[in-house]
C-alpha cells in the first residue's frame, strides 16, 4: 500500500507529538543560554527527527516537507519558549509531556509503517524509532548523555505502545480505540517509570 492511512485522531497524535518534542528541544537550547535561532533549530530537529528517519526507511514522502503545519508548530513552540520564564517549565512536567509525545509518536510511526506495507515486527521497530530518534538527535547535537541512557524505562514505553498499536490493527480492532489505548498504556508505563524510577535489570556480567 503506497498511500498513507491517517485519520483525524492520528493527525492529532502526530501534531501533539511534534509540539511536545519541539518544546523539549527548545528547552534544551534555552538551558544552555542559546539564541532564538538555535532554539528554533533544536525545536525543529527534535520535533521532526524521528518521523523523518521513519519516512526515509519506509520509502514515504518526508511528512513535514508536505505539511505546512509541522514546521510552523516547531517554530511557534520555540518562540513561545523564548518569551516565557524558564521556571515555568519544571523538569518533571517536561518529562511527563515528553512521555506523552513519545508514546503518541510510537503509535503513529507503527501505524504509518503498516499503511506502507511494512510487516508487523518491523512496523513496531519503526514506531520505536519514530518515538525515540528525535530525542537522540537532540541530545547528540547538544553534547549531553542521550535520553535512552537514563535508567528508567523509556524505549520500553515506546515499544509497548507500538506493539499494542500493531496488534490492534492485525486483529482488526477499531483503529481510534487502538491508537488511544496504545498511547495511554505506554504513557502510563512511562509515567510510572518517572514517578517510581522503574527500570529493567542492567547487564551485570
Q: If you had to describe this structure to a student in words, what would you say it looks like?
A:
One of its GO terms (cellular component) is plasma membrane. Residues 12-84, 96-167 form the Glycine transporter domain. It comes from Qipengyuania algicida. The protein has 205 residues and is mainly alpha-helical. The chain has one domain (8-196). The chain has seven helices and no strands. Helix 1 packs across helix 4 (91-115) and helix 1 runs parallel beside helix 5 (120-142). It is globular and about 50 Å long. The protein starts with 7 loop residues before the first helix and ends in a 9-residue tail after the last helix. The model is unreliable at 1-5 (pLDDT under 50).
What is this entry, summarized?
The chain is mainly alpha-helical and 205 residues long. The protein is built from 7 helices and no strands.
Number of domains: 1
The end-to-end span amounts to 45 Å
The assembly state of the depicted protein chains is single chain
Rg, Å, rounded: 16 Å
How would you sum up the global shape?
A: globular
Helix content: over 70%
Unreliable segments of 5+ consecutive residues: 1-5
Structural class: mainly alpha
Percent range for β-strand residues: under 5%
- What's the total number of strands? 0
Major sheet characteristics: none
Instruction: Specify the number of helices.
Output: 7
> What is the ordering of alpha helices and beta strands?
HHHHHHH
Which whole number gives the mean pLDDT? 88
Write the layout of secondary structure elements.
Layout: H1 8-31, H2 36-58, H3 68-82, H4 91-115, H5 120-142, H6 155-170, H7 175-196
Helix pairs in contact: 1-2, 1-3, 1-4, 1-5, 2-3, 2-5, 4-5, 4-6, 4-7, 5-6, 6-7
Subcellular location: Cell membrane
Family: Belongs to the UPF0126 family.
Protein name: Trimeric intracellular cation channel family protein
